[in-house]
Specification:
The chain has helices at about 15-25, 35-45, 60-70, 90-95, 110-125, 160-170, 180-185, 195-210, and strands at about 5-10, 30-35, 50-55, 80-85, 100-105, 135, 140-145, 150, 155, 175-180, 215-220, 225. By secondary structure, it is an alpha/beta fold. The protein has 2 domains: about 5-125, Rossmann fold, CATH 3.40.50; about 130-225, Winged helix-like DNA-binding domain superfamily/Winged helix DNA-binding domain (Arc Repressor Mutant, subunit A, Orthogonal Bundle), CATH 1.10.10.10. The chain has a 5-stranded parallel sheet, with helices on both faces. β4 (about 80-85), α4 and β5 (about 100-105) form a beta-alpha-beta unit. The radius of gyration is 18 Å and the shape is globular.
Length: about 230
């Protein structure tokens, strides 16, 4: 079986080598780029199974690169994990909103990062085996075959991770899903201590839902549910 490939875009040599060392120890084949332009070129040339993309790069930033990758037909479906030195939620929101599948913050634990890499690659490989039933609830149409969520005549632009979260919640309106369940079922990875990935995704989804943000309800201390109410009460 051919090795899975990972493109690492990181300008700090020491961190780049640590990432490559751990990835190769896990059996991945790695490509390396020290800047955004080189990363974009390698992504188009090699079509890797996953891209580890640093947020702070010389020249083009990681967010700019993520946007370009998602706009290019050759690279738009490649899973992306953002690696950022900043722990502020706003940085994670920007990356996820542009289409990144996950994010980790520096300093990271190699074992945790390798677990996230494996989970994101696995989700991409299993994408064709995901649920294909169309869901219609409270005026929202979720069409997995077209990978679209429609509200009236408006088609929402969601990342793959955001789509899976909405699909999971809407599959059983009124049911509360814990953060751990959402992480496992929609994101394909266990929820780690202090992990706010699910919360960040939901925040971004609500922003895209605009006036329909009320459809995803927070159940304090538990998780989230897709409302089974017909309208705002």
């Amino acid at each position: 079986m051919a090795k899975k490939t990972v493109l690492v875009v990181e300008d700090e040599i020491d961190i780049l080598e640590i990432l490559v060392y751990n990835l190769e120890a896990e059996g991945y084949r790695c490509y390396k780029a020290l800047d955004g332009e080189g990363g974009l070129a390698l992504a188009r040339e090699k079509n890797p199974d996953l891209i580890l993309l640093d947020l702070m790069l010389p020249g083009l930033s990681g967010t700019e690169i993520c946007g370009r990758l998602r706009q290019d037909a050759l690279t738009r479906d490649i899973p992306i994990i953002m690696v950022t030195a900043k722990s502020e939620e706003s940085d994670a929101v920007v990356g996820l909103g542009l289409g990144a599948d996950d994010y980790v913050t520096k300093p990271f634990r190699p074992k945790e990062l390798m677990a996230r890499v494996a989970a994101v690659i696995r989700r991409g490989a299993n994408r064709s085996a995901s649920q294909t039933d169309r869901i219609e609830v409270n005026g929202v149409i979720i069409d997995p075959m077209r990978h679209e969520i429609c509200m009236g005549n408006h088609v929402l632009e969601l990342t793959a991770s955001e789509f899976r979260i909405v699909q999971l919640l809407a599959s059983q309106p009124g049911r509360v899903f814990t953060r751990e369940q959402i992480s496992a079922k929609a994101l394909g990875q266990p929820m780690l201590p202090s992990d706010r990935n699910v919360d960040v995704h939901v925040k971004t989804i609500r922003k895209k839902f605009e006036e329909f943000r009320y459809l995803i309800e927070t159940v304090r201390g538990v998780g989230y549910r897709f409302t089974d109410r017909k309208a705002i009460e």
